[in-house]
Amino acid sequence: MERLQKVIAQAGIASRRKAEELILQGKVKVNGQVVKELGTKVSGKDRVEVEGIQIEKESPVYYLLYKPTGVISTVSDDKGRKTVTDFFQEVPQRVFPVGRLDYDTSGLLLMTNDGEFSNILTHPKYEVDKVYVAKVKGVLTKEKVRMLERGVMLEDGKTAPAQVKVISGDRRKETAVVQITIHEGRNRQVRRMFEAVGCPVQKLKRERYAFLELGNLRPGEKRELTPHEVKRLRATATTKPR
Protein backbone atom coordinates (compact mmCIF):
# COMPACT_ATOMS: atom_id res chain seq x y z
CA MET A 1 0.00 0.00 0.00
CA GLU A 2 1.27 3.46 -0.92
CA ARG A 3 0.00 6.99 -0.43
CA LEU A 4 -2.28 8.17 -3.20
CA GLN A 5 -0.23 11.27 -4.04
CA LYS A 6 2.90 9.13 -4.39
CA VAL A 7 1.14 6.75 -6.78
CA ILE A 8 -0.01 9.70 -8.91
CA ALA A 9 3.51 11.14 -8.94
CA GLN A 10 5.07 7.82 -9.88
CA ALA A 11 2.64 7.57 -12.80
CA GLY A 12 4.21 10.71 -14.25
CA ILE A 13 1.02 12.77 -13.95
CA ALA A 14 2.48 15.49 -11.75
CA SER A 15 4.88 16.18 -8.91
CA ARG A 16 3.81 14.97 -5.48
CA ARG A 17 2.91 18.49 -4.36
CA LYS A 18 0.79 19.03 -7.48
CA ALA A 19 -0.82 15.61 -6.92
CA GLU A 20 -1.80 16.71 -3.41
CA GLU A 21 -3.47 19.81 -4.87
CA LEU A 22 -5.42 17.66 -7.34
CA ILE A 23 -6.63 15.44 -4.49
CA LEU A 24 -7.74 18.40 -2.36
CA GLN A 25 -9.56 19.85 -5.38
CA GLY A 26 -11.61 16.67 -5.72
CA LYS A 27 -10.12 15.73 -9.08
CA VAL A 28 -9.01 12.23 -8.04
CA LYS A 29 -11.16 9.10 -7.79
CA VAL A 30 -10.28 5.72 -6.30
CA ASN A 31 -12.49 2.86 -7.48
CA GLY A 32 -15.04 5.38 -8.75
CA GLN A 33 -15.23 7.44 -5.56
CA VAL A 34 -13.85 10.97 -5.16
CA VAL A 35 -11.09 11.02 -2.54
CA LYS A 36 -9.94 14.22 -0.83
CA GLU A 37 -7.92 12.68 2.02
CA LEU A 38 -4.15 13.13 1.54
CA GLY A 39 -3.38 10.17 3.79
CA THR A 40 -5.35 7.72 1.64
CA LYS A 41 -3.40 4.59 0.72
CA VAL A 42 -3.99 2.45 -2.34
CA SER A 43 -2.71 -0.83 -3.72
CA GLY A 44 -1.89 -1.96 -7.22
CA LYS A 45 -5.38 -3.46 -7.47
CA ASP A 46 -7.12 -0.11 -6.93
CA ARG A 47 -8.37 1.89 -9.92
CA VAL A 48 -7.14 5.48 -9.71
CA GLU A 49 -8.44 8.25 -11.98
CA VAL A 50 -7.11 11.79 -12.27
CA GLU A 51 -9.48 14.26 -13.90
CA GLY A 52 -11.44 11.36 -15.38
CA ILE A 53 -8.46 9.50 -16.83
CA GLN A 54 -7.28 6.21 -15.34
CA ILE A 55 -3.58 6.28 -14.52
CA GLU A 56 -1.10 3.61 -15.47
CA LYS A 57 2.28 3.36 -13.85
CA GLU A 58 4.97 4.15 -16.42
CA SER A 59 8.53 2.94 -16.26
CA PRO A 60 10.59 5.86 -14.90
CA VAL A 61 12.89 7.72 -17.29
CA TYR A 62 15.47 10.40 -16.59
CA TYR A 63 17.03 12.78 -19.13
CA LEU A 64 19.53 15.62 -19.22
CA LEU A 65 18.54 18.29 -21.76
CA TYR A 66 20.59 21.20 -23.06
CA LYS A 67 17.78 23.73 -23.12
CA PRO A 68 18.23 26.45 -25.75
CA THR A 69 17.16 30.04 -25.18
CA GLY A 70 13.69 30.90 -26.45
CA VAL A 71 12.10 27.74 -25.05
CA ILE A 72 9.54 27.50 -22.22
CA SER A 73 10.24 25.13 -19.31
CA THR A 74 6.69 23.77 -19.19
CA VAL A 75 4.80 20.80 -20.59
CA SER A 76 2.59 23.01 -22.79
CA ASP A 77 2.11 26.69 -23.65
CA ASP A 78 -1.20 28.35 -24.49
CA LYS A 79 0.63 30.92 -26.63
CA GLY A 80 2.05 28.27 -28.94
CA ARG A 81 5.67 28.84 -27.97
CA LYS A 82 8.21 26.03 -28.12
CA THR A 83 8.44 24.02 -24.88
CA VAL A 84 11.06 21.64 -23.51
CA THR A 85 8.74 18.68 -24.14
CA ASP A 86 8.97 19.36 -27.88
CA PHE A 87 12.44 17.76 -27.72
CA PHE A 88 10.90 14.51 -26.41
CA GLN A 89 8.21 13.75 -28.97
CA GLU A 90 9.72 10.33 -29.72
CA VAL A 91 9.80 9.40 -26.00
CA PRO A 92 6.65 7.38 -25.11
CA GLN A 93 6.63 8.48 -21.47
CA ARG A 94 5.09 11.84 -20.45
CA VAL A 95 8.13 13.71 -19.19
CA PHE A 96 8.20 17.08 -17.44
CA PRO A 97 10.98 19.42 -16.28
CA VAL A 98 12.58 19.19 -12.85
CA GLY A 99 12.34 22.84 -11.83
CA ARG A 100 12.70 25.31 -14.66
CA LEU A 101 14.96 27.64 -16.59
CA ASP A 102 13.76 31.03 -17.81
CA TYR A 103 12.74 31.57 -21.44
CA ASP A 104 15.96 33.55 -22.07
CA THR A 105 18.21 31.19 -20.09
CA SER A 106 19.96 28.20 -21.65
CA GLY A 107 21.68 25.20 -20.18
CA LEU A 108 21.24 22.02 -18.20
CA LEU A 109 17.70 20.95 -17.37
CA LEU A 110 16.59 17.58 -16.03
CA MET A 111 13.48 15.93 -17.46
CA THR A 112 11.63 12.94 -16.00
CA ASN A 113 8.25 11.27 -15.48
CA ASP A 114 9.15 10.44 -11.85
CA GLY A 115 7.30 12.92 -9.64
CA GLU A 116 8.88 11.63 -6.43
CA PHE A 117 12.36 12.11 -7.91
CA SER A 118 11.45 15.66 -9.01
CA ASN A 119 10.05 16.46 -5.58
CA ILE A 120 13.26 15.37 -3.85
CA LEU A 121 15.48 17.47 -6.10
CA THR A 122 13.35 20.62 -5.90
CA HIS A 123 12.32 20.49 -2.24
CA PRO A 124 13.61 23.62 -0.43
CA LYS A 125 14.91 21.67 2.57
CA TYR A 126 17.63 20.06 0.42
CA GLU A 127 20.65 21.78 -1.09
CA VAL A 128 21.45 20.89 -4.70
CA ASP A 129 24.13 23.11 -6.23
CA LYS A 130 23.36 24.79 -9.53
CA VAL A 131 26.21 26.49 -11.38
CA TYR A 132 25.52 29.33 -13.82
CA VAL A 133 27.71 31.48 -16.04
CA ALA A 134 26.36 34.99 -16.56
CA LYS A 135 27.41 37.90 -18.72
CA VAL A 136 26.44 41.04 -16.83
CA LYS A 137 26.36 44.73 -17.61
CA GLY A 138 28.16 47.07 -15.23
CA VAL A 139 31.30 47.08 -13.11
CA LEU A 140 31.22 44.12 -10.73
CA THR A 141 33.27 45.44 -7.83
CA LYS A 142 34.72 43.33 -5.03
CA GLU A 143 32.08 44.75 -2.71
CA LYS A 144 29.30 43.65 -5.07
CA VAL A 145 30.83 40.18 -5.24
CA ARG A 146 30.89 40.04 -1.43
CA MET A 147 27.23 41.10 -1.35
CA LEU A 148 26.30 38.24 -3.67
CA GLU A 149 28.37 35.80 -1.63
CA ARG A 150 26.73 36.87 1.64
CA GLY A 151 23.23 36.92 0.17
CA VAL A 152 21.21 39.84 -1.17
CA MET A 153 17.76 41.03 -0.15
CA LEU A 154 15.08 40.40 -2.77
CA GLU A 155 11.34 41.07 -2.58
CA ASP A 156 10.79 37.47 -1.41
CA GLY A 157 13.54 37.54 1.22
CA LYS A 158 17.30 37.34 1.50
CA THR A 159 19.07 34.79 -0.68
CA ALA A 160 21.30 32.10 0.78
CA PRO A 161 25.06 32.63 0.47
CA ALA A 162 26.39 32.02 -3.04
CA GLN A 163 29.78 31.16 -4.49
CA VAL A 164 30.97 33.76 -6.99
CA LYS A 165 33.95 33.72 -9.35
CA VAL A 166 34.67 36.53 -11.81
CA ILE A 167 35.94 34.87 -15.00
CA SER A 168 36.66 38.03 -16.97
CA GLY A 169 35.84 41.72 -17.07
CA ASP A 170 35.89 44.52 -19.63
CA ARG A 171 35.99 47.90 -17.89
CA ARG A 172 35.79 49.78 -21.19
CA LYS A 173 32.54 48.07 -22.16
CA GLU A 174 31.53 47.74 -18.51
CA THR A 175 30.71 44.05 -18.75
CA ALA A 176 31.82 40.97 -16.85
CA VAL A 177 31.51 37.20 -17.16
CA VAL A 178 30.78 35.56 -13.81
CA GLN A 179 30.31 32.04 -12.49
CA ILE A 180 27.79 31.82 -9.66
CA THR A 181 26.73 28.77 -7.64
CA ILE A 182 23.42 28.72 -5.77
CA HIS A 183 21.28 25.96 -4.27
CA GLU A 184 17.92 27.71 -4.09
CA GLY A 185 15.35 27.59 -6.86
CA ARG A 186 13.45 30.88 -6.74
CA ASN A 187 11.93 32.32 -9.88
CA ARG A 188 14.53 34.17 -11.98
CA GLN A 189 16.78 34.18 -8.92
CA VAL A 190 20.18 34.66 -10.56
CA ARG A 191 18.92 37.52 -12.71
CA ARG A 192 17.32 39.20 -9.71
CA MET A 193 20.47 38.80 -7.61
CA PHE A 194 22.60 40.60 -10.18
CA GLU A 195 19.95 43.28 -10.67
CA ALA A 196 20.01 43.85 -6.91
CA VAL A 197 23.70 44.81 -7.08
CA GLY A 198 23.25 46.98 -10.19
CA CYS A 199 24.63 44.54 -12.77
CA PRO A 200 21.76 43.25 -14.93
CA VAL A 201 22.25 39.95 -16.76
CA GLN A 202 22.67 40.07 -20.53
CA LYS A 203 23.17 36.33 -21.04
CA LEU A 204 22.72 33.36 -18.70
CA LYS A 205 23.52 29.67 -18.94
CA ARG A 206 23.29 26.85 -16.40
CA GLU A 207 26.40 24.74 -16.82
CA ARG A 208 26.11 22.28 -13.93
CA TYR A 209 23.42 20.70 -11.78
CA ALA A 210 24.84 18.89 -8.76
CA PHE A 211 27.65 16.81 -10.36
CA LEU A 212 26.10 16.74 -13.85
CA GLU A 213 27.54 18.80 -16.71
CA LEU A 214 26.49 19.42 -20.31
CA GLY A 215 29.53 17.69 -21.75
CA ASN A 216 29.47 17.53 -25.55
CA LEU A 217 25.75 18.23 -25.88
CA ARG A 218 24.61 21.08 -28.10
CA PRO A 219 21.50 23.21 -27.57
CA GLY A 220 18.40 21.07 -28.07
CA GLU A 221 20.25 17.79 -27.56
CA LYS A 222 19.62 15.35 -24.71
CA ARG A 223 20.84 12.11 -23.19
CA GLU A 224 19.46 9.60 -20.73
CA LEU A 225 20.93 9.55 -17.25
CA THR A 226 22.57 6.32 -16.18
CA PRO A 227 21.11 4.37 -13.23
CA HIS A 228 24.22 5.32 -11.24
CA GLU A 229 23.67 9.03 -11.97
CA VAL A 230 20.03 8.78 -10.84
CA LYS A 231 21.05 7.03 -7.63
CA ARG A 232 23.80 9.57 -7.01
CA LEU A 233 21.39 12.49 -7.57
CA ARG A 234 19.01 11.09 -4.97
CA ALA A 235 21.88 10.69 -2.53
CA THR A 236 23.24 14.19 -3.27
CA ALA A 237 19.89 15.75 -2.38
CA THR A 238 18.86 13.69 0.60
CA THR A 239 22.24 13.76 2.35
CA LYS A 240 22.51 17.59 2.32
CA PRO A 241 19.66 18.87 4.50
CA ARG A 242 19.80 22.47 5.73
Automatic annotation (TrEMBL):
A Pfam family the protein falls into: PseudoU_synth_2
Coiled-coil residues: none
Keyword Isomerase carried by entry: yes
UniProt xrefs under PANTHER family: PSEUDOURIDINE SYNTHASE FAMILY PROTEIN-RELATED, RNA-BINDING S4 DOMAIN-CONTAINING PROTEIN
GO CC aspect terms: cytosol
Transmembrane segments: none
Signal sequence coordinates: none
InterPro entries assigned to the protein according to its UniProt record, in alphabetical order: PsdUridine_s_RsuA/RluB/E/F_cat, PsdUridine_synth_cat_dom_sf, PsdUridine_synth_RsuA/RluA, PsdUridine_synth_RsuA/RluB/E/F, PsdUridine_synth_RsuA/RluB_CS, RsuA_PseudoU_synthase, S4_RNA-bd, S4_RNA-bd_sf
Keyword annotations from UniProtKB, A to Z: Isomerase, RNA-binding
Classification lineage: Bacteria, Bacillati, Bacillota, Bacilli, Bacillales
Enzyme Commission number(s) from the entry: 5.4.99.-
GO annotation, biological process: enzyme-directed rRNA pseudouridine synthesis
Organism per entry: Ectobacillus ponti
Record domain RNA-binding S4: where: 2-65
The keyword Isomerase is annotated on this UniProt entry: yes
GO molecular function ontology, one term from the record: RNA binding
Name of the protein in its database record: Pseudouridine synthase
